[in-house]
Amino acid sequence: MKEGKISAEELWKAVILYGLNQASYKMALGKVLLDFANLRVGEVRWSDLSKAFLDAYVGRLSSSNHPQQSTPGRLTKLERIVSSLNNGLITYDEAVDMVANAGFTDVVPRFQTIGANRQVVNQAFYEIDFGKKLILKDALLALPEVDGGSSLYGEINARWSLLEGAFSINHSVENLELANSIRDTFLLSGSIKRTSLTDNIPFLSGYQGNACFYCGEPILGIPHVDHVLPRQVVMHDHIWNLVLSHDFCNLNKSDQIVGPHFIQKLVFRNENIMGSNHPWKKKIIEQLGSTKSQRIAKTKELYELVKIARGEVFWGGERTYNPRHDPFYGKLITVLNNGVANHDK
Length: 345
Prior knowledge:
This protein is 54% helix and 6% strand. With 345 residues, the protein is mostly helical. It has two domains: 8-172; 198-344, no CATH class. The longest helix has 22 residues, at 150-171.
């Protein structure tokens, strides 16, 4: 090896050991790529890659209940797909299709990085024909020649275990088994497949006015439809849990848990709907109960279950945080709504 030249083995180890891993996707893909390199396969069809990637996660999750990503209480797309498969909600072929269409959006393009740097690795190990195939390079195909690849597999497994341990500390869920059980319960009664929510905007606007549910500022332009209790946990698009918000508020909240004052506000909003004759009234009765006390109790019960499943990491870091009472937040929303140029005039 010429002095200063980085070998394929060194480059691979750098990718595995020094990636910015917010989830364990890179470890699973690394294992799968080594498997194909061992087979001396020059091109990997997208469907074969999806099957191998899914199988890697099915195997891993069957022997480990540790979280697979850093965000407290959240499941990766692959965890949700595997859970749906294990619970009989989807077939194996459907799971493979979901991996192919949703699971590879980030991991395949981002695998060939060291830290956040894409220039060092570039496309040393494969080229992407997205949705169709991977073209494996000589640098990847030569890796099994390094002691049969055993040390490289060992490093992937060790790094995967280290990530799971770090994620477990971040999640700090006292009873992970209970949290997983609650997630499965929501999954079995809900749906992993999302539906379009834009048709709900006129109805929601009628009971919310033109104000963002979270910050109370007027909504200019097209509002976002958001799940107050994170959809990633409750696994449904029930109208009682949907509100309108600014895109900024929605993105800032993400799928974090809101403080209890927002749950109280949601209860009030839903009771306003119950005072109407809209067809959605019947839906809310079916989902939450026929009396006000039943609906309040059910909403709060679901909130408590979500906190266990998701981990009590509240939006803004505090249970009591309320953007509507935050002057800076309100000023920021005003600027974003009106445009900086107008604000500066």
